[in-house]
Specification:
The chain is 51% helix and 6% strand. It is mainly alpha-helical. Among the domains are: 111 residues, no CATH class; 81 residues, Trypsin Inhibitor V, Chain A (2-Layer Sandwich). The strands form 2 sheets. Strands 2-5-3 form a 3-stranded mixed beta sheet. About 3% of the residues have low confidence.
Length: 382
């Protein structure tokens, strides 16, 4: 089956005229087919033999090739990135609208310069020649920040590295499809493998650190939980002991053995290291019980035992000191201010300076007084 020698149309065996261009069999070709050259041939300037990519000397005559120019495509691309970076310092801050928009897209930390660089990288067309692809992969691999895949405090570097990595993978796959079976591809394969291994190593290390951190946090929670259970167990045990003492105190009061009841009541202390709130509660309870004992004792003997020394009352909040003495049965308690505070460093406001009972500031804790004896509580204030 013949073909038209003019346009290449497929003709039947019996046809004498081309149905497309009108060429008649037997006529001379009226026009020559157009020819197009794809790519360029590089030859040695010394011997004229063909030169393959990625060589620095002629394989035939060993002539050293000098003055090889860097790929114009990759160089122009690198120059554009450098020019964008130079303009970083003169850019204005983001507007409110831009900040809100970036926050919704995850680009909050990116400046205009960062966005321009990322867009340029993403839109860069992968080169076609071996030299250009190799040059670009080298450029991309050196601009990928491995550490950005480990630390969350590098959001800008992470997005820039993602753009470079994505484009490097495109260039790698294009090279693999184009000349993946040739020996020259091994150079690109090595660069690509080394970079991917480095990123994988960083991610693995980061995952291990996160696992250790989570494990440590869980261990702390477990430790706190066990400690809390242990602390609660000790609190319950202490309260059972104190409640047992309270029962014994009330039994002694009923028997009229006030000295024994008072001795046991003075032991009603809860460890504030276990629970400050429970320690305060038992302080109030102890004071109340001691006051009850003293009232009972007064009704029988006519006098009340102080149960506190001047040193124990000094430094206490004056309201607490007054309450303690009232619960013990004392009825004639007076309060006096001492406006001596300037900064409140050596002494605090409302802190007891001294307590006087019947004119005596050096009374003993086991001294007995009448319930209406004059007691003066002097406290600091501004």
């Amino acid at each position: 089956m013949p073909f038209c020698r003019e346009c290449g149309y497929k003709m039947t065996d019996e046809a004498t005229v081309c149905l497309v261009c009108g060429w008649k069999t037997g006529e001379e070709i009226r026009s020559k087919r157009q020819e197009e050259w794809a790519g360029k041939i590089v030859k040695c300037p010394n011997c004229g033999d063909l030169i393959n990519a990625f060589v620095s000397s002629c394989p035939s005559c060993n002539y050293e090739l000098r003055g090889s120019k860097v790929s114009n495509v990759v160089k122009e691309f690198a120059d554009k990135l450098e020019q964008i970076e130079k303009n970083r310092s003169v850019q204005k801050g983001k507007s409110i609208f831009e900040k809100v928009s970036d926050l919704s897209t995850g680009d909050y930390y990116l400046t205009k310069t960062d966005k321009q660089k990322i867009n340029l990288i993403k839109n860069f067309p992968v080169p076609n020649t071996k030299e250009d692809i190799l040059e670009f992969i080298v450029l991309a691999s050196t601009n990928i920040n491995d550490d950005s895949y480990a630390y969350q405090n590098l959001p800008v570097e992470k997005q820039l590295s993602d753009a470079w990595l994505s484009k490097m993978e495109q260039a790698y796959h294009k090279a693999k499809l184009t000349f993946g079976t040739e020996a020259d591809f091994s150079k690109i394969q090595d660069i690509y493998d080394n970079k991917m291994k480095a990123i994988k190593k960083v991610k693995k290390r980061n995952s291990r650190n996160i696992f250790l951190l989570i494990s440590f946090i869980l261990f702390l929670f477990l430790l706190l939980g066990v400690g809390s259970c242990y602390s609660t167990s000790k609190e319950e045990k202490k309260e059972r002991e104190l409640n047992k003492i309270v029962d014994e105190v009330y039994e002694d009061i009923e028997k009229g053995d006030y000295d024994a009841a008072l001795k046991k009541a003075n032991d009603l202390y809860f460890d504030d290291g276990l629970s400050q709130s429970k320690a305060d509660k038992w302080d109030e309870k102890r004071i109340s019980i001691i006051g009850l004992i003293n009232v009972k004792k007064t009704n029988k003997q006519g006098k009340i035992k102080v149960n506190y020394s001047p040193k124990e009352l000094k430094g206490m909040n004056y309201e607490k000191a007054e309450k303690i003495l009232k619960l013990q049965g004392f009825t004639n308690i007076k309060l006096e201010k001492n406006d001596d505070l300037v900064l409140g460093i050596l002494a605090k406001e409302d802190e007891v300076e001294k307590v006087t009972i019947d004119g005596d500031t050096d009374f003993k804790r086991d001294t007995y007084y009448m319930s209406n004896v004059e007691i003066i509580i002097t406290y600091h204030t501004f």
